[in-house]
Design goal:
298 residues, alpha+beta, Double-stranded beta-helix, 8-stranded mixed sheet, 3-stranded antiparallel sheet, 25% strand
């Protein structure tokens, strides 16, 4: 697969913005972006070119980046507001703009039983928000020598592969998403009453239209509890059937992390989960996470 040159027309403080390259790396999604330093400012045309690449490839991999937390927040804010998280740290405090994704215990040691197991289930970030996220951005700080990847499933391809009768059946249906359901579905500590108030149940169309491309896709995952207007058991069965279909290997890409990589993905059309396929009690896996607020699904 060949690389494509894309040029931004603005300038850094030190001189012109260099062209960046887009090199597809996955069979069904993902591209590596070369020739850009995310710690340096860039103009709107470069930002728009990055968004165009995200629409085309769903996952963008920026190798060899060195970002402070402030620099990661600055990069994230070029695409919209930074979204906060309803979860809490071990000390009960909110995460702030940068959320630590890790397998570390309260003493900072690797563990097989991190604070939450939710990352190991198929989901799209923040779907339990009235206005869910556009994109998640992870910066790899420490990674295991092998394994510890992130799996992605392409919901556009999954929807397009559905039988026509299934498309007709789910057209117009809305699923109920909530933080409470997410905690229950992933066998985590139940949501607190305060968290339930902060993130009450919301409904979103099960077939969503991508605002950047106009393509239709499934919008489901483990943050869902049932389907609005349908018997709970029947709705859950349909959600499980769709999730099983949509996460078939033919729709998947697995990203194996390298230290310093920044990966940006499109939450509107992807599900993802972490792979617990490494010695979690021996090797730390630490990533800095920011999330860009998106638009209301339709």
């Amino acid at each position: 697969m060949s690389a494509t040159d894309i040029t931004g027309s603005g300038t850094h403080a030190e001189g012109p913005v260099s062209p960046f390259t887009v090199n597809p790396v996955g069979r069904v999604m993902a591209a590596e972006i070369g020739g850009i330093d995310l710690s340096r400012p860039f103009d709107d045309s470069t930002r728009d070119a990055i968004l165009d690449a995200l629409n085309a490839h769903q996952i963008l991999i920026f190798p060899d980046q060195t970002l402070s937390k402030d620099a990661q927040v600055a990069f994230t804010m070029r695409f919209g507001d930074v979204e906060q998280h309803v979860a809490r740290n071990y000390d009960g405090k909110t995460f702030g703009d940068v959320h630590l994704v890790s397998n570390l215990d309260p003493e900072g040691k690797p563990t097989k039983t991190p604070r939450s197991s939710g990352n190991f289930f198929w989901h799209t970030d923040k779907s339990y928000h009235e206005i869910p996220s556009l994109s998640t951005i992870l910066h790899a700080i420490e990674v295991p020598p092998e394994g510890g990847g992130t799996q992605f499933a392409n919901m556009q391809l999954a929807y397009e592969a559905l039988p026509e009768e299934t498309k007709e059946r789910i057209d117009g249906l809305r699923a109920v998403h909530s933080w409470e359901a997410s905690r229950n579905n992933t066998f985590n500590r139940p949501a607190t009453e305060q968290q339930k108030k902060e993130r009450p149940p919301v409904t979103h169309p099960m077939v969503r239209t991508h605002p950047g491309t106009g393509r239709k896709m499934l919008y489901i995952g483990t943050h869902t509890s049932h389907i609005e207007g349908m018997a709970v058991g029947e709705g859950r069965a349909l959600l499980y059937q769709l999730l099983d279909f949509a996460t078939h290997p033919r729709f998947q890409y697995t990203h194996y992390w390298k230290k310093g990589q920044v990966v940006m993905w499109d939450n509107r059309c992807l599900l993802h989960r972490a792979a617990a396929d490494f010695e979690m009690d021996k090797y730390p896996r630490v990533l800095h996470r920011t999330v860009v607020r998106g638009t209301k699904p339709y």
